[in-house]
Design brief:
single chain, alpha/beta, Rossmann fold, 10-stranded mixed β-sheet, 5-stranded mixed β-sheet, 23 strands, about 35% helix, elongated
Length: about 625
């Protein structure tokens, strides 16, 4: 049995140990350590100290094991990028590089809740809120809030805890309200909040409140609650995006940040009022010193649910009016804003009306074919061109492209009929000027000829929020066509328009038809009174101004002459027939004022109709009792 191979000339560990026991020379004492190139070539020596350097300049690696000459040691010292070194450098880069998360990556995170805000894992699971934890400490470090377009996931909003907003994963631009994809079933009450965590807290509190009920249906019901994605910023745009679906709810409960102590909360509420209106909007009042729904979660469970229930059931309809003590008023308070009437191109109407004012609603009515739409078109053109107003056009008796054609023809002083027959009667240069100066300052409703009152109000709110200062509605009757109770529908619509105009800087002109009267023909010059308005007495009551057009469209010489009559003007109090008349030109498509003409000159006054007494028996027979 061979115990040792004497042909091996290398120093073995056993011989090295024997030499150490016998005592080595001074030259064998290490004076430095270097990375061993042989070890690193094999992927070892991560510490960089395997090569021992002695006083004589030679080296030795006990791991290989291998001796190194002076030249080899010097080469190891001078080496800058050995194989192991470059591998190590790449590893360091990889550690410093963090791969961007994707939507797919986030699916591996869990539903853990937020202990700091008392949000449960069940709530996170309902909304799809994911939480990332630190692998070393196990603490939550990031929350991910999903945003959808209908049922498709588009991205996550990212919040580093406690409140450090980071770059979105995917995209949330153009997506729905947070939680919108979860709204299923009957549209009774919808809660709107200003933050994802507030939305989660509200859902959790609402569920707990429902569980107190003895009604099994209420216990099983799922709250309808959503959140604005970015608070006040972008609130108008996203609420307008959902306006038609929002208005399907019986009640919209605003639970944004406490508007009494938070300026941003007050601004968000103001935006909501402008978009949603005041008919369905209810505002919840927070307990003292509570800013949002997450603040309620800091209370005990019972107290938090009690406070939420009180907010939920005691919410009141939004009302901009408060009681003001006259003793607190000063002269400056009364003179904050001068009422401005913007001049219109109809001289005699201007004298009585003193211009169009914001925050008002004007009714325009006449017999059929008397020029109501033409007058509206003239007013819309004037306000867009002279006063640079954005004009919203809701012409329910014609297509939107015909309405735009009407403005094109009017701006170039040609009749609409002539332009529609031959588009070349207006030069291309003039068309481009009209597009730039008039059409681009207008918005048009594309409709199918009939629209419900609720949808109509949504469109009016949308036009206002897009910058329109004047909205022309032609005409009101089309919005209630087919209704079982037309009078009631008109009353409701007029009340809604009244409230909207009262609280927003806008002027609405509505065209109203007249009721048929067997005794008077309004197309032949009969005088218009308040009793002749078709629909409801609420028409005149809910309007600021009311203007009628009278004339005889069958007159031999003045069939195209119209005489305005003011039935109401709250600001000036002026009523009655306006001076002069307006001749319509079938060539230019415009009205021209004639101060020398009057209605009495061309329309024959007829004696009031009175019933004749019937005769009994004929002749001179006296029917007196004897």
């Amino acid at each position: 049995m061979i115990l040792n191979d004497t042909t091996d000339t290398e120093v073995t560990p056993s011989r090295h140990n024997r030499r150490k026991r016998r005592g080595g020379s001074k030259s064998s004492t290490p004076v430095a350590n270097l990375p061993c190139p042989h070890c690193r070539a094999k992927g070892g020596d991560s510490t960089g100290n395997h090569l021992m350097v002695f006083k004589d300049g030679k080296g030795y690696c006990s791991r290989c094991p291998k001796h190194f000459t002076v030249e080899e040691v010097q080469a190891a010292k001078d080496a800058k990028n050995t194989k192991r070194q470059s591998r190590f450098e790449r590893s360091t880069f990889q550690k410093s590089y963090k791969k961007e998360l994707t939507i797919e990556d986030i699916q591996y995170f869990g539903f853990l809740g937020d202990a700091h805000r008392s949000i449960s894992a069940e709530t996170d699971r309902y909304f799809g809120i994911k939480t990332e934890v630190n692998q070393s400490t196990g603490q939550s470090i990031t929350r991910y809030y999903p945003y959808y377009v209908e049922d498709d996931l588009y991205g996550y909003k990212v919040r580093g805890l406690p409140k450090n907003w980071k770059t979105d994963v995917g995209t949330i631009k153009g997506t729905d309200l947070f939680g919108w994809n979860l709204l299923k079933g009957a549209k009774k009450t919808l809660i709107i909040t200003e933050g994802e965590e507030d939305c989660a807290a509200g859902w959790q509190l609402n569920k707990a409140m429902n569980m107190r009920s003895d009604n099994r249906r209420i216990k099983r019901s799922v709250p309808h609650i959503v959140s604005l994605p970015n608070g006040t910023k972008g609130a108008q745009k996203i609420l307008l995006h959902h306006i038609e679906d929002l208005m399907k709810y019986d009640k919209i409960l605003w639970m944004g940040d406490n508007y009494k102590i938070d300026p941003e909360g007050a601004l968000a509420l103001e935006v909501a009022v402008q978009v949603i209106g005041v008919d369905k909007l209810y505002v919840a009042e927070y307990p003292d010193r509570k800013k949002d729904l997450c603040d309620l979660m800091k209370l005990s469970t019972t107290e938090a649910v009690d406070a939420f229930a009180e907010m939920y059931f005691n919410a009141k309809k939004y009302s901009p009016a408060d009681i003001v003590d006259g003793a607190d008023l000063e002269v400056s308070d009364l003179e904050k804003e001068v009422v401005v009437g913007y001049e219109i191109p109809f001289h005699s109407i201007q004298e009585k009306l003193q211009g169009l004012r914001l925050y008002e609603h004007t009714l325009l009515f006449s017999g059929s074919g008397m020029g109501k739409s033409t007058l509206c078109r003239a007013l819309g053109h004037w306000m867009a061109y002279e006063h640079r107003w954005q004009v919203g056009n809701i012409y329910l008796e014609e297509r939107y492209d015909k309405t735009a054609q009407g403005y094109m023809a009017y701006d170039n002083s040609v009749s609409l009929g002539a332009y529609r027959k031959d588009f070349s009667i207006i030069s291309e240069e003039d068309k481009l000027n009209t597009m730039e100066n008039i059409i681009t300052k207008m918005m048009f409703l594309n409709h199918n000829g009939c629209i419900s009152p609720d949808v109509l109000m949504n469109k009016i709110r949308y036009l206002f929020n897009k910058g329109c200062k004047l909205i022309i509605l032609d005409h009101i009757s089309m919005a209630v066509t087919g209704s079982d109770d037309e009078r009631r529908e008109i009353d409701t619509l007029m009340e809604n328009i009244y409230r909207f105009c009262e609280t927003n800087p806008i002027h609405v002109i509505s065209v109203v038809h007249l009721s048929r009267d067997s005794k008077r023909d309004f197309a032949r010059g009969a005088e218009i009174t308040a009793n002749n308005l078709r629909g409801s007495a609420g028409l005149l009551q809910m309007a600021w101004n009311a203007i009628g057009l009278e004339g005889d469209n069958q007159h031999e010489d003045h069939a195209d002459t119209r005489f305005p009559r003011m039935l109401k003007c709250r600001e000036t109090g002026e009523v009655g027939l306006c001076d002069g008349g307006y001749r319509y030109s079938k060539v230019t498509g415009r009205f021209k004022f004639d101060e020398d003409i009057s209605k009495d000159d061309i329309i024959e006054k007829k004696q009031p109709w009175t019933p004749s007494l019937p005769t009994m028996g004929g002749g001179s027979h006296d029917n007196k009792a004897v």
